[in-house]
């Protein structure tokens, strides 16, 4: 089961953070078809957010065809986003952890690591499309 969290620094609204976390879990193979998402009540209790925020996120995911609500039972994954490259995740994750360790030893804080990664990622993406 997914363990939601909120990041006040993300710049995303809470409902979009929940949607993004489900998408990421689906893409990484952490959630599978048939898995149940936490109940709205559980998410509200854990994150201290408005139930309408969770409902909005779940409706968005349902609109995208990724989950389906079963009244009185819960919300279940109906589609995965995981690609055929799941086997590559382990080695890539280890390499990324080594890189993060180097960045921390170089004195970078979380915000600096994120800024460095995102600017490099965007620059590389632009180069790939050019």
From TrEMBL:
Annotated TM spans: none
Name the domain of life: Bacteria
Report the residue ranges that make up the HTH gntR-type domain in this protein. 12-80
Q: Which UniProt keywords apply?
A: DNA-binding, Transcription, Transcription regulation
Show the Gene3D superfamilies listed in the entry: Winged helix-like DNA-binding domain superfamily/Winged helix DNA-binding domain (1.10.10.10)
Protein name per the record = GntR family transcriptional regulator
